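Subject: design request, 121 residues
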């Protein structure tokens, strides 16, 4: 199982690649058969091909990502809250919940979007 330090480094890399719109960097963090639920309960992307296609579409939108809390880790799971700023719509918050495999690759990512949470900060 990956250490807390390894998981935090992977989450930080995810945030860096997301903010830089680096699709190759993002996809490189996922396991082959990973699943990404974004937003949770609405869309699911299974496997690297679907995750890459989603990330390529997402990279076409200009946005900034700011971490608004600590990375929390329990076992092979981690969570982080983010503020997303596009300049086109009001900022919104997400809580991203990760599950990692033994190689510290993302096997599951659940993104919970909440446009109203930013007002509470």
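Subject: RE: design request

Done. Sequence follows.
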């Amino acid at each position: 199982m990956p250490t807390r330090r390894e998981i935090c480094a992977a989450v930080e890399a995810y945030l860096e690649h997301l903010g830089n719109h680096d699709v190759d960097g993002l996809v490189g963090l996922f396991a082959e058969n990973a699943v990404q639920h974004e937003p949770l309960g609405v869309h699911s992307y299974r496997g690297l091909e679907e995750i890459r296609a989603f990330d390529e579409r997402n990279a076409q939108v200009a946005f900034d990502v700011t971490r608004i809390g600590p990375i929390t880790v329990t076992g092979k799971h981690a969570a982080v809250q983010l503020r997303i700023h596009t300049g086109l719509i009001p900022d919104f918050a997400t809580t991203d919940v990760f599950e990692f495999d033994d190689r510290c690759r993302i096997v599951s990512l659940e993104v919970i979007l909440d446009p109203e949470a930013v007002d509470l900060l």
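The first strand starts at residue 30 and ends at 37.
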